[in-house]
UniProtKB/TrEMBL annotation:
<keyword id="KW-0255">Endonuclease</keyword>
<keyword id="KW-0732">Signal</keyword>
<comment type="similarity">
    <text>Belongs to the EndA/NucM nuclease family.</text>
</comment>
<protein>
    <submittedName>
        <fullName>Endonuclease</fullName>
    </submittedName>
</protein>
<dbReference type="Pfam" id="PF18962">
    <property type="entry name" value="Por_Secre_tail"/>
</dbReference>
<dbReference type="GO" id="GO:0004519">
    <property type="term" value="F:endonuclease activity"/>
</dbReference>
<dbReference type="InterPro" id="IPR026444">
    <property type="entry name" value="Secre_tail"/>
</dbReference>
<feature type="domain" description="Secretion system C-terminal sorting">
    <location>
        <begin position="290"/>
        <end position="355"/>
    </location>
</feature>
<dbReference type="InterPro" id="IPR044925">
    <property type="entry name" value="His-Me_finger_sf"/>
</dbReference>
<keyword id="KW-0540">Nuclease</keyword>
<dbReference type="Pfam" id="PF04231">
    <property type="entry name" value="Endonuclease_1"/>
</dbReference>
<feature type="signal peptide">
    <location>
        <begin position="1"/>
        <end position="18"/>
    </location>
</feature>
<keyword id="KW-0378">Hydrolase</keyword>
<dbReference type="InterPro" id="IPR007346">
    <property type="entry name" value="Endonuclease-I"/>
</dbReference>
Length: 360
């Protein structure tokens, strides 16, 4: 049985393959809180190479090809990707770009994780690849300019399980419609928005809020309930190899990086821990660890799906850093050998399944 647990901090580990240019984050040592956020905003603004909105189409084959699920180089659309089975439909780059759509699968377009209406479609925000993703046109239309949030009673559910419905996020002060992506991509979305309010901190006061941006407290950047939810999603869905590769492609393209992919621990350094950051049974369903708490180096993992289909498992600490990767973890049974992890709270992630465990 899972229990609500307090978030503990563990040691600092680097993320492999980040390819951060030497000296890129000079000047951040010792900084915390909004001082760190301001410095990061300066770093990721300096040297930024602006592109047109239409030029994104030519970059997406480098940044958003599916090399992680079907591995077929079709468009990796977070609103249609099925992480554990066949996708409901696929798009080939340059084919079926939107003019019009009536149903899912008609065409794809560009999703601004921070809606264009909040910054009046102005550049450079409109063409910033770090928060503009290729997605199905119909589901993009469902999302519209609504905030991201937790949906309990969806009015619309997309073919991959993304949901639109009344806001059920704990602590919310807005109760209209929100959009909830599937668990596999919640952290991706969170880090897109955290990047945005860092990169454009000096301009936020001129934007519209949309129940998303905090235009009166630009240091915080996001309205409190939305920020708390995104911090939770960041913790529950750690940085993936897909995000690392996309961050590197974005740097080659527009000469800046998402610092919260390179250093996910900085999310906690800037904003702290979400008060919602306790075990979420909905997020962790279908995967269990025993014993939990762990008092040795062996854990037994079970679930209601065939775990043999997953060729990798990842263990993350609670600031989002990868501390162990296990190749073919379930080919010869369901036990995993831990690498002498320090005491603390961790996330085990395999495929779309996540769950927390405690090492004592």
């Amino acid at each position: 049985m899972k229990k609500s647990i307090l978030i503990l901090f563990v040691g600092i580990f680097g993320i492999a393959n980040a390819q951060i240019p030497t000296g890129y984050y000079d000047g951040t040592s010792g900084l915390t809180g909004y001082t760190l956020k301001t410095k990061l905003g300066q770093i990721i603004t300096a040297g930024y190479s602006q592109h047109t909105y239409d030029e994104l189409d030519g970059e997406y084959p480098k940044s958003d090809a599916d090399k992680y699920y079907e591995n077929d180089n079709t468009i990796l659309d977070i609103y249609s990707e099925n992480p554990i089975g066949p996708d409901p439909y696929n798009y080939t780059f340059g084919v079926k770009k939107c003019g019009n759509y009536a149903v899912e699968g008609d065409c794809y377009n560009k999703e601004h994780t921070v809606p264009q209406s909040l910054f009046n479609q102005k550049l450079p925000m409109r063409s910033d690849i770090h928060h503009v993703l290729p997605t199905d046109g119909k589901v993009n239309g469902y999302r519209s300019n609504y905030p991201f949030g937790k949906v309990a009673n969806p009015s619309i559910t997309s073919k991959n399980g993304s949901k639109l419905g009344p806001n059920a996020t704990p602590g919310a002060t807005y109760f209209g419609s929100v959009f909830e992506p599937i668990n596999e991509f919640k952290g991706d979305i969170a880090r897109c928005l955290l990047y945005f309010v860092t990169r454009y901190q000096t301009q936020l006061s001129s934007f519209s809020s949309g129940n998303i941006l905090n235009t009166s407290n630009v240091s915080q950047g996001l309205v409190t309930w939305e920020l708390n939810l995104l911090l939770l999603w960041h913790q529950q869905d750690p940085v993936s190899q897909k995000e690392i590769d996309r961050n590197n492609a974005a740097y080659s393209y527009q000469k800046n990086r998402n610092p919260y992919i390179d250093h996910p621990e900085w999310v906690t350094e800037v904003w702290g821990i979400s008060p919602l950051a306790v075990d979420d049974a909905v997020f962790s369903k279908n995967l269990n660890i025993a014993p939990n708490p762990v008092r040795g180096n062996i854990i037994n993992v079970t679930g209601d799906k065939d775990l043999k289909k997953f060729n990798k498992a990842f263990i993350y600490n609670m600031v989002g850093q990868n501390v162990q990767t296990i190749e073919n973890p379930f080919q010869n049974g369901n036990t995993i050998q831990l690498n002498n992890l320090p005491k603390g709270v961790y996330i085990l992630k395999t495929g779309e399944l996540n769950t927390k465990f405690v090492v004592e």
